[in-house]
Amino acid sequence: MKNNNMSTEFAKSFAEDWVTAWNSHDITTIMEHYADELDFNSPVIQQIRFNDEGRITNKKDLQSYFSKALNIYPEVEFKLHDVCIGTESLVLYYTSINNKKVAEVMFFNVHGRISKVMAHYN
User: Which of these CATH numbers, 3.40.640.10, 3.40.718.10, 3.10.450.50, 3.30.70.100, describes 8-121?
Assistant: First the structure.
């Protein structure tokens, strides 16, 4: 990403790569998409009892949370439906655990890594 401007090419490529990483269940590949400093918010954090806040603010805890989620949902496979593009962010609309639809707002740092997430489930 140049100057924090989101391009259509970056957004689509990133989204496809992110979904592929999740569907591989390879935690190292998944974590490559995230910045070291981050703010990750999701109701699933509370649902799987990772913490009561539904928020994670460091990469180590995020990796632990993702690993726990993959252990609880070993058959999870994401299906990307759409990508909406902002200036420094994008929204991925996809199917996730238990066939739930998710709208995940992702903000990026200047290095093209996710620095903030707001996940919304139906």
Answer: 3.10.450.50
